[in-house]
Structure formats: structure tokens, C-alpha cells
Amino acid sequence: MTENLPPVLRILVVDDEANIRKTLAIGLELEGHHVTAVSNAQDALGAAAARTVDLAFVDLRLGAASGLDLIPSLLARSPWTRVVVITAFPGVESAVEAMKRGAADYLPKPFTPAQVAAVTARVAELRRLELAVAGLREGGAGEAVLLRSTSAAMQAATDLARQVAPTDATVLIRGESGTGKGVVARAVHAWSERSGGRFATVSCPSLSGQLLESELFGHVKGAFTGAVRDNPGRVAATAGGTLFLDEIGDLPADLQPKLLRFLQDREYERVGDTQTLRSDVRVVTATNVDLDEAVRAGRFREDLYYRLNVIQIDLPPLRERGDDIPLLAEAMLGSLRRGKPIAGYTPEALAALKAYAWPGNVRELRNVVERAVILCREDRVGTAHLPGGISRATGVAAAAAPEVGELVTLDALEEAHIRRVLAGTKTLEEAAEVLGIDTATLWRRRKKYGI
């Protein structure tokens, strides 16, 4: 399973001795990690600012400077960076001081490759666990419950995911933000013959065009400012596994033909390199935008869309899965109660959760449950522990429209009309068509009025 595999680490080596930098970098890169090696604190902070660091090997003495002073600055840039102090002058006092400043380990010189490998393996395992927890938080606690949905639409999506998983077909997962697209992508990988390989996620909107290309396909040293070492890229790192491209609709236009070429021929070049490389990796993508409309508007290549959309899995929004809401809420409560003696929900709280429209879907439900756990001091979560818009959901849903002649605001009239249309239609797309607006505008109106 992908969850049992240690991740590729982004490692920073800070040492003023060139031989130490080179030896460490070569050994760590042979293990498949991405390594940046620098000689001083200023370059170290610059490297950490350019890219998140999972593990930093920091020399205790950096010329006239102290590596101890660098530790807090590195930790301030990322909550999961682990710092290992390396030194040719080991001592109890310096080791204690390093730990006080936040170092995770202390490695005296001369060290062996086996010692470095053991330290790196421990950090990789910690990172794997952190990524697993992050995945649960992002996809919503209780992934099994999400995939065992009582909703016919969700069951159909899960069945299709199981059916397509053993193949190498490219999969496009569509659904609103927070519906669990990442959970389904991980499930496709776990149910496939590639489950023993790596699973990696790249969020297309999170990086600029050049950095996103480098993240996907890699770069060679000197390809651009800050490229101080070769980077193999995610396509190479996930060979034999699955690469999940989230929010593919935001892929920059200049990257679209390069991704299309890779999907067709499995060939690509790293940024700044002319050598053509190949990689056997399955691509799964997801989007919360209408790619058909993006193609018509010229924002997305039609040929790339068809290449991505070999198999399309549509995830229903949470508002269309009313019977799943209690199951998901109970599963989330079980994982988030953190030892608090909370037995469940009051009937009124469950009714409010079911009546609410959940514009943020499963992700919003998880946030609401986490908030309720923090506030709850009783044995059951009640409406008092829910946000106001949700605790009033049952009453708001039944609220009558303004009567003829009543002096009300335009917002009140709009809200009442939107509620009537939503109540009389089966899908958000149908409601938007009746209202004469697009689904994105309708979503914003629902969020505005708490519908």
C-alpha cells in the first residue's frame, strides 16, 4: 500500500567543508532523495525559502558562525523540518544546546553511510506518518466511510474507481471542492497493481508556471535562479506508481502541450536539459471546474482534455448525500474526539447537520466536527456547539418567502428565490440553469446566504 512507503525527502546539507557536502549529497541522492548542499547560513536560509525542507544536516561550526543559531530560523520556515546537527567536536553541552534549540538528532563526525541512512530513514518514517495524517485531514476522516457511501451516485463513483483501478487508463475525477477527489485518487492507486509504488500529489494552482514544470518534470543545475542542484521531478520520482494532479484546470497554458506529450509518448525533458527521458507513471487528475467550458473558452487544450478524460468519475456534493452525513459525522467524531468522553450527537444536532447545504462539502463537515469537539463539554455534541448558520439550518430551510407587499431588501428576495429554485430542482447545475447564472455564481450566492 502507498501509505507504507517512505516518501522522497527534500534534504538540505549545510557544511563549510566541500568534501562533507559532496559525500553527504551523493549518498543521499543515491537513496533517491532531493538534496541541496550549501556552505553557509545565508545560503541555507535562501534554499529553505525557495523550497520546503524535510531534513537539514547542519554543521555545528560554519566558519566563524554557529550552526546552532541557524536551527530556529530553519524550523520557523516549516513545522515539519527536522534538523540533525553534525560536528567534529562532539560534546554533551553542545548536544543539549542543539536539542534545546529544536534539533531532532546529533551526529558526531566522522560518521558512516549506515549512520546517515539510519537517521534519514527515521525522518522519512515520521514524514510518511505526517503525510498520512495530512491525507486524512484533507480527504476527511474516515476514508472507508466515504467510500462505503449509501448514496447511489457515490456508490457508482466508487464502483467505477474499482473497475478502472487495475488498468493504466488515465482517470479524471470531477467534483466540487471538498468532495473527496483526493481520497478517490488514493483509492484508485491502492486498488491498482501499482499500489506497491509511490503515490504523489501535485497541486497545479499552488506553484508558478516555471516552478510547476520543475516540480513535475525536474530541472538541471543552473536552469534558473535558485536551481543549485539537479531535481529529478515528480514524474521520475513516482515511476512505477501514481501521480495525482489536483485542480488540473489551473494548469498553465504553456505546460499543457508538455503534459500532453508525456501522456501520449511517456517522454519529457527536465527544465534546462535537452536529454529526452521516459517514465512509467500513471496519471490521475481532478478538477472542480467545468473543463468543457474551459475548452470552449480557449483556456484548456481540447486534445489534452480528451487525453485526460479516458475515464471520468463524478463525485456528488455532500448536499446530495443526506443519509451519509450522520455516518461521516460519527466517523469524524471518533477520530477527532482526542480522548474526550463524547458519545455522539443530539438528535437536534444531527437534524441541523442534515439540513445544512454544505457548500464546502466533506472538508467543511470535518472542520465543523473538529470545532464542535473543541467546544463540547457535555457527553453529546448539540446545536450550541455548531456554527450559527448550521445550528439554524432546520429553521432557515423552512423559512417562508417574503409576502407580496412586504418591504424587504433585494438580497432577501434573491435569497428566497434561490431557496425556492434549489428546493424544486435535483442538481446544482439544474438550479443554475433555471436561475440563468453559472454554477460558480450560484455557489457564491449560496455561500453568501448560508444556504
Give the helix/strand layout.
Layout: E1 10-14, H1 18-30, E2 34-38, H2 41-50, E3 55-59, E4 61-62, E5 65-66, H3 70-77, E6 82-87, H4 92-100, E7 105-108, H5 113-139, H6 143-147, H7 152-164, E8 171-174, H8 181-190, E9 199-203, H9 209-217, H10 234-237, E10 242-246, H11 256-265, E11 267-268, E12 277-278, E13 282-287, H12 291-296, H13 302-308, E14 311-314, H14 324-336, E15 344-345, H15 347-355, H16 361-375, E16 380-381, H17 388-391, H18 393-397, H19 410-424, H20 428-435, H21 439-449
Helix pairs in contact: 2-3, 7-8, 11-13, 14-16, 19-20, 20-21
Instruction: Tell me the number of strands.
Output: 16
| Largest sheet, spatial ordering of strands | 2-1-3-6-7
**What would the principal axes of the Cα set say about the shape?**
globular
Helix count from the secondary structure assignment: 21
Mean pLDDT: 84
Strand content: 5-15%
Characterize the largest beta sheet: strand count, sense, and whether it forms a barrel: 5 strands, parallel
CATH class bucket of the largest domain: Alpha Beta
Structural class: alpha/beta
Contiguous runs where pLDDT drops below 50 for at least 5 residues: 1-5, 133-142, 395-401
Q: Return the CATH topology of the largest domain.
A: Rossmann fold
Number of domains: 4
Gyration radius, in Å: 26 Å
How far the N terminus sits from the C terminus, by CA atoms, comes to 40 Å
